[in-house]
Amino acid sequence: MTQLCTIIPPYLLDRLAESGIESARRSLETDAALRTARADALRLRAATPVGRPGRTIADAGHTQHLPGRTVRTEGGPPTADPAVNRAYDGLGATLALLLEVYGRRSVDGEGLPLQASVHYGQKYDNAFWDGHRMVFGDGDGIVFGDFTGCVDVIGHELTHGVVQYSAALEYHGQSGALNESVADVFGTLVKQYALGQQAADADWLIGAGLLGPGIRGTALRSMKAPGTAYDDPRLGRDPQPASMDRYVQTTEDEGGVHINSGIPNRAFYLLAVELGGAAWERAGRIWYDTLTCGTLRPDADFTAFARATMAAARSRFGDGPVTEAVAGAWKQVGLVVQ
C-alpha cells in the first residue's frame, strides 16, 4: 500500500514538538490523521482516469479540507499568490524532466493530470504526496518556510508518484530508504534540469532555502555530504550516514527511511560527478531504467538495487567506463557489486 510520503521526517517534527514548538506538534498530529485517512481512501478509490498531463492548483485556505478552491489550471495566467504560481511551475518542471529526458508522460507514464493544494492547514510544517495529489504547507515562518519555495522538494514528492507507478518500493527499511533516495535523486535532477546545471556545478542539496533564517543549516539533506546539512539546537544534527559502515539501525521513521537514504544518495552523487556533464543524461538514465525495468522487487535492499543499476548500465552503455563508474560509486559507500 502506498504510504503518505512527507518531505520533513517525523523525527525532526518530534524533536521540535518536544522543544515546545506548537506548529510542529500540530503538524505531527495532522500527519498521523492523514495516514489513517489515506489508508481508508486507498481501499475505496476507483481506478484513476487517464488524461493529458495538465496541472490544477487549489487553495486549501489554511484548512485541512482537500482539495480546496481551484485557483489555477493548465494554461491559465499567473495569479497574485506566489505559492500558487510556484506550485504550478514546480509541477511543470517535473513534467518537463520526465517527458523531455525520459519520455515519460507524467508520474504514471500515461498522462496522469497533476493536482496540488497550497496553504494547507495552519502553519503546517510539511509537504506530501498522498498517492493522488501534492499538498503544501506554508511552514511556521521560524523553522521552516513555505514548502512551495523549493522546486526540488516538489520534484521529490512527485517522484514518490513515479515510484508508486513503477517499482512500488515498500516504505520501510532499506526499500523505504531507496524510495526516499530515488525521490531525492529525481528531485535534484528536476532542479538541475530547470537551471541547466552540470553535475559539477550543482549544490546537491535537498530543500536549500527551506530552513528559517535563524536555523544553522543549509538544507534538509546533502547528497554530496550526508550528515552535514544542518547542526542546530532545535533540529539537532543531520543524522544521515554517508556509507554502510555508519548505517543506522532504528525502529523510528519506518526503519530510518529518511536517514539511511543518505547512502544511495551519495552513490548517485559520486556517479554523476565521475561521469561528468549533465547528471540527468547518464547517471539519471541508469537510475530511471532501474526504477522502471520491471524486475526490481518492492522489497529490494541496497545490494539488490546496486546490482540492478549495474545491470541497467550494462544494458544501456555496455561493459566499459560507465558501468565501471557505477561499481566504483557503490564501492565508495561500502557496497561491492559486480
Q: What this model shows, in words?
A:
The structure is a single chain. This protein is of the alpha+beta class and 338 residues long. The chain has 2 domains: 5-164, Elastase, domain 1; 197-332, Neutral Protease, domain 2 (Orthogonal Bundle), CATH 1.10.390.10. Helices cover 43% and strands 9% of the residues. The chain has 10 helices and 10 strands. The protein has helices spanning 10-18, 22-44, 82-102, 151-164, 173-195, 253-256, 262-275, 283-292, 302-317, 321-332, and strands spanning 5-6, 55-59, 69-73, 114-118, 127-129, 134-136, 205-206, 221-222, 231-232, 236-237. The strands form 3 sheets. The chain has a 6-stranded mixed β-sheet, with helices on one face. The protein has a two-stranded antiparallel ribbon with strand order 7-8. A two-stranded antiparallel sheet has the order 9-10. A hairpin with a 3-residue loop joins strand 9 and strand 10 (236-237). Helix 3 (82-102) crosses helix 5 and helix 5 (173-195) runs parallel beside helix 7 (262-275). The longest helix has 23 residues, at 22-44. It is globular. It starts with a strand and ends in a 6-residue tail after the last helix. The model is unreliable at 38-51 (pLDDT under 50).
